[in-house]
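Hey,
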Amino acid sequence: NDPEGIDLFAELTSENKLKGDDLLTTYQILSDFVVRNPDRQDLRERLFEMAYQIPLYGEMVETHLPRLREKVLESPDYTDMAVVAYRAVSRVEEGLQLLLESIDRHPQIVIRYEDLIQFLDEQELNAVDLANLYSRFSHEMGESETPRAEGALIDQQLRNLATGDDSGTALEREMEDEP
C-alpha cells in the first residue's frame, strides 16, 4: 500500500514489454492497489491498456471504462480499445454509442468516421439502425457549421451500407477506372 513503491513498480514494469504471466501478475498487483486508491487515474489508465493486452475485456468494460469514460472519449486509441472490448463482450450497441459520442465531441477527426464505417461494415445491423445512422449524418454540405471534411464520402458510404451496395462511391469507381 506504499504509493511511492507502487509508482516505482509501475514505472519499472512499463519499461519492459511484459507478456503472459508477468503481465497478468503486474495487472493484479496494480489492480489491488487501485482498489484501495481509486483516485489513481494514471494507474487506472495503465490497467485499461493492460486489460486490453491480456485481454480482459469484461474487466475493461465493467471496472475501468466507467471511471475513464472522459479519457476514452478524448483519445482515439482508447476509444478503439473500448469499442473492441464492448464488441468482445457482446455489448455492440454500447460500443456504437461510444463511437458516436466520440464523433459528436470531435467531428473534425475524420478517422472517427472511417472507424464508424468499418464498425458498421463488420456488424450485422438491421435496416432501422442503418436508417437512423444515415439520417443522423445526412445533411446538405452547406447547412452544417461543424467541420466534416469528408461528409459527402461518408454520406455515400453510409448510403451504400444501408442498401447493401459495396461497389463504392462514384469517385472511387472513377479512380479505379483511370490507368
